[in-house]
């Protein structure tokens, strides 16, 4: 039997859409909230409140990485509208930052005229300034002091970790071994798949499994089937892996144009949560109550091996999702 429980961090990147604000203007805050946070559709809402409904039904904890940068445009109340329900229902709020909002902030840009798509586009000193603002704004919106961070687009670098240390945040979770060509420039490799101390803080990699062609595939609700994710957790438990991180987004259960429910992804999310709740030796966890423990050395445990049947069925499911909903 495994020596310990495997802690599963179901992390939800929770964010207004900077792309929608750029395309449609910054005067549509309510519409942005409806599309990106509440995820309203004629057939019901499938955003943050729905995700918490599913978590609560199965006695699971969610970790909501909330982006406070839109407060530059709309004020802190726009962030409080997100944070208050999460805190009230006992789920975890941590820090997320999309620096694209600097471009929309006009005269309120923290850095004058400087903008960038990812936090790694800025100097160490600028990153400290961004993170200090984001942390204090998230707390002003009603969140407890955050201890963990994930950058928008996974776009961190080693300076981000140094900046986080300066502002008093001890965990970072942007390293994604399953995305080979992503934006993350933290100096780790695909072999770094478990929590470790790097640049003075705990780096918590996003989970992954083996995929076709000797590659890895990241553990995201739109990237793996419920069968694959649950198999990955059973595999982690069997190898005494202390933790596993799964990623989703506040709007992930919608079609790509955010107009309808993506029934395939919604059902995947529902089945995953139901299966996790029944799994012995595995528990959902939060950074507030049970943060990831770094390992003294890199655990020898390997990712879930490829199952051509499991992953092949997921690829067929993805193809159907793309056809019906424009994503998957």
Task: Write a brief caption for the model.
The protein is α/β, with parallel strands linked by helices. The chain is built from eleven helices and eleven strands. The protein is globular.
Descriptive notes:
The chain is of the alpha/beta class and 328 residues long. It has a single domain, classed as Glycoside hydrolase/deacetylase (TIM Barrel, Alpha-Beta Barrel). It has eleven helices and eleven strands. Strands 1, 2, 3, 4, 5, 6, 7, 10 and 11 form a nine-stranded mixed beta sheet that branches. Strands 8-9 form a two-stranded antiparallel ribbon. α7 crosses α8 and α9 runs parallel beside α10. It is globular, with a radius of gyration of 19 Å. It starts with 5 loop residues before the first strand and ends with a helix. 48% of the residues are buried. The mean pLDDT is 95.
């Amino acid at each position: 039997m495994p020596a310990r429980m495997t802690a599963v961090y179901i992390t939800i990147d929770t964010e207004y859409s900077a792309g929608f604000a750029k395309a449609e203007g910054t005067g549509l805050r309510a519409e942005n909230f409806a599309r990106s946070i509440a995820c309203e559709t004629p057939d019901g809402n499938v955003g943050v409140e729905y995700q918490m409904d599913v978590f609560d039904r199965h006695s699971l904890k969610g970790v909501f990485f909330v982006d406070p940068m839109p407060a530059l445009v709309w004020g802190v109340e726009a962030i409080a509208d997100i944070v208050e329900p999460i805190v009230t229902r006992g789920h975890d709020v941590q820090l997320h930052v999309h620096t694209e909002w600097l471009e929309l902030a006009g005269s309120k840009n923290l850095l004058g005229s400087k903008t960038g798509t990812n936090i790694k586009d800025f100097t160490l000193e600028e990153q400290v300034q961004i993170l200090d603002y984001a942390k204090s704004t998230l707390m002003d919106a009603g969140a407890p002091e955050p201890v963990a961070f994930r950058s928008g687009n996974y776009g961190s670098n080693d300076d981000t970790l140094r900046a986080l240390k300066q502002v008093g945040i001890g965990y970072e979770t942007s390293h994604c071994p399953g995305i080979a060509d992503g934006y993350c420039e933290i100096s780790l490799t695909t072999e770094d798949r478990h929590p470790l101390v790097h640049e003075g803080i705990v780096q918590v990699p996003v989970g992954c499994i083996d995929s076709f062609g000797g590659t890895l595939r990241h553990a995201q609700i739109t990237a793996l089937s419920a069968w694959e994710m649950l198999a990955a957790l059973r595999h982690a438990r069997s190898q005494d892996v202390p933790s596993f991180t799964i990623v989703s987004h506040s709007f992930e259960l919608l079609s790509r144009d955010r107009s309808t429910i993506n029934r395939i992804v919604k059902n995947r999310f529902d089945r995953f949560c139901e299966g996790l709740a029944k799994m012995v030796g595995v528990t959902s966890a939060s950074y507030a109550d049970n943060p990831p423990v770094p390992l003294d050395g890199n655990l020898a445990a390997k990712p879930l091996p490829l199952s051509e049947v499991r992953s092949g069925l997921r690829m067929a499911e993805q193809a159907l999702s793309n056809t019906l909903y424009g994503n998957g």
